[in-house]
Design brief:
alpha+beta; six-stranded antiparallel sheet; flat
Length: 342
């Protein structure tokens, strides 16, 4: 594809937001991570299971019995299944805790020896989200374990309000091998270095639309155009740039107490998103670290006795009123997570 054809294609089509999010996650994974957990943006294909809104409870003061539903969200790759539970508990194999005697390749920091070592893991990243009307924010308080949250919805809101900036620089077909050679000559930050060399050879200023052209102020990824939401160009490549503070603005929070703000996202921003994906956009991930520690120390333990958890979910509505539910987490004999209202 010629440079002129590229420019027209990129001017006429808006990149898919989930595609951009995955690229941002790839960029972030190349940097030093603050937390050894999954990237912020993994809800593109989310399995949402409705745990249920059961009964009504009256709260004093600012609390209300206004209904809302709590979801258990699985960020797996190609499933979109929603199941509403009207009462009782729900056992979810998506949160399955397992011991593997040869699960991970590791290196002993003292002896320097490497080999497979026992590990404990969960079958899928699992979390909680809330669905309801007029929600301003949701606070999740975990009694025993930890939660993580990536600020995906905030990023979409900033994109919507033009408070977020990214640059796509398409590479003509006859320059792709040249760019790859420029990148491959570096071992440290190769894509950041490669685009600087490319900018010395070719004028890329037109792609910045008058914004900052200092390449030191961007994180860079070299991607296939199809990964950026341009499926009609399966073989094309482009540089994708985001501002350096992306990680600070939209990185992962890791805590036992996390508040998730909700945003007014318009129809254009949400075009192409399913209701489940919008719900999952606000999901917090749950990691049963205490249960994993116990299973690691005692692989033969009855999994139904593994330590569980309580997660208090407090919704603040736009009028300032609040509603609260408490979710219990336990495990069956197969290590499957069981979620229920307390």
């Amino acid at each position: 594809m010629s440079n002129t054809e590229f420019k027209k294609a990129f001017d006429d089509v808006s990149p898919d937001m989930f595609m951009q999010t995955r690229i941002l996650a790839n960029i972030k994974s190349k940097k030093k991570k603050r937390f050894p957990l999954k990237a912020v943006i993994s809800a593109a294909l989310a399995l949402v299971v409705v745990v249920a809104c059961v009964g009504s409870i009256s709260y004093k003061s600012m609390y209300t019995d206004r209904p809302f539903s709590v979801m258990v969200v699985d960020a797996s790759d190609d499933m979109h299944v929603t199941e509403e539970i009207s009462a009782g508990s729900i056992s979810l194999p998506i949160l399955n805790i397992e011991y593997d005697p040869q699960g991970a390749w590791s290196t002993n920091n003292i002896t320097g020896e490497s080999g497979y070592a026992p590990s404990v893991g969960v079958s899928s990243q699992c979390g909680l989200a809330v669905s309801g009307d007029d929600i301003a924010s949701v606070r999740y308080e975990c009694q025993n374990d930890m939660l993580t949250y990536g600020y995906t919805a905030k990023m979409y809101y900033d994109i919507q309000n033009q408070d977020y900036y990214s640059v796509i620089i398409p590479i003509p077909d006859d320059r792709v091998d040249e760019v790859k050679a420029l990148i491959n000559q570096y071992t440290v930050n190769p894509e950041e270095q490669g685009i600087k060399d490319y900018a010395q050879l070719y004028d890329i200023s037109e792609y910045f639309d008058g914004k900052d052209t200092d390449l030191d102020n961007y994180q860079v990824s070299f991607e296939k155009c199809s990964n950026l939401g341009y499926p009609e160009d399966n073989d094309g490549y482009a540089f994708y740039l985001v501002e350096n503070d992306w990680g600070e603005r939209y990185g992962v929070a890791y805590d036992s107490d996390i508040t998730v703000d909700y945003y007014e996202l318009n129809e254009r921003t949400l075009a192409g998103f399913t209701d489940e994906e919008v719900t999952a956009m606000y999901a917090v991930d749950y990691l049963p670290s205490r249960a994993m520690d116990v299973l690691f120390d005692n692989p033969d333990v009855d999994k139904s006795t593994l330590p569980g958890d309580e997660i208090t979910v407090t919704v603040t509505f736009k009028d300032g009123k609040k509603a609260k539910k408490v979710i219990t987490v336990s495990f069956d004999e197969d290590g499957n997570g069981i979620f229920a209202y307390k």
